[in-house]
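Protocol step 4 of 5: obtain the predicted structure for the target chain.
Materials: sequence only (see below). No template structures provided, no constraints applied. The aim of this step is simply to have a reference model before the mutagenesis design in step 5. Sequence pasted as it appears in the construct record:
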Amino acid sequence: MWYLDSLGGGSDATNTIIKYVVSDDGVSNWSEPISISLTQPEYVIWHIDLRYIPEKQKYYMLYSAFPYGSSNTNKAALFFSQSDDGTNWKVYNKKVINTSPTSSWDSEAIYKSTFLYNNTSDMFRVWYSAKGDDSSWHTGYTERNMTLFLDS
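Step 4 output (structure tokens):
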């Protein structure tokens, strides 16, 4: 299981660490946490979603992150990373989704997201929650060709 440790900061965290633990039964007897080598330059990682894609033989993580000095609901964007082993990650600095300067429904923050991968079309489908300039919350959807995104 991968989880985010806000280092006691809760929703006011100024730094976070992603950790990994293992359990044979998923209820008790958890391993000691292992800190993951994943940071997003100039951002604090907030919500994570992770998948192992058997066809690619890799782990992929989609996560929202907000700029240092900001908050988890202010100008957060969505980023992507990949790993061969689930603990060492290649970070992509380009954003999957950024707050929109022209659209009011997702102009303030990209918050929690999830994704699915379709091996036949090489597309990853993303659902995400976003906060608009009127402080209301909405759900968005987008899809991207994974190979083109990773290679660009």
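Step 4 remarks: The mean pLDDT is 89. The chain is about 5% helix and 45% strand.
Proceed to step 5.
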